[in-house]
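Sharing in case it's useful to others searching the archive later.

Someone asked me privately for the predicted structure of ABC transmembrane type-1 domain-containing protein, so I'm posting the question and my answer publicly. Question first, with the sequence:
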Amino acid sequence: MGAVMAVIGRTEDGVRSSPVASALVWLAGIAREYGSLVLVLICWELVARLSLVPPYLMPPFNEVLVRIWAEIGDGTLWVNLLDTLRRTLVGFGIAVVAGVAIGLLLARSSTAEWLVGPLVSIGFPLPKIVFLPIFILWFGVYDTSKVIMIVCDAIFPVITATVAGAQGVERQIIWSARNLGAGERDLLWTIILPAAAPQILSGIEVSLPIALIVAVITEMMLGGTGIGAAMMESWRFAESTGVFAGLLELSIIGFLLIRSMNALRRRLLRWHAEAQADLV
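And my answer, the predicted structure tokens:
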């Protein structure tokens, strides 16, 4: 271990590294970031293999991987994955566009604040899932109800983040821009949106996993296709391997979505002080 740390130390000090040293640095970074996850998976496999828990309650991890591989081979995974992602991203996209628009309107218009503000204040803490029976009555049990449910849940973090970001812009900057002849549209695109972008993107980052969660919940409740629906079908037949396979698949999807959103945030804010601080 001392020799490994010495190699890593020389690499970090700027000494030219060999491929072996680079690999060791990479492995050390992986262990530092995902060591706890690997430990959980090892414990899962040991608990199942030692029969500490009945197999129908917790199948071995390797059997779950075999199930996922089988679903990849017969195409089941791709059908369910694409349906879940389609509903998630459509609902999320609508929530982002509508949420930013409503948030800017609330921040810039006292009339809109008077009309819509109380609805946002009441709707934010309300469990939006209570509207699902109404949406089923109005739109049926298919994709329309699921997407609308996603929008209803995912839109509120975007609205509140946009309002906070837009209202947090320094008034002196706005006054200076107005004195230079900037109109309302110029203020919006060149001053308010860039200044509020970090907070808006934070709200969007919160909204994305909410959209995925609601998509899976509606699939579980309404059936059809999707990973959530496949998990419920496995549950009905007491196939715990299928349930845990869906859990693992959703964990990977959520991880990749969050990482993609983080990368997009860094790219969009590469001009911002936040991005410059990350480079230091």
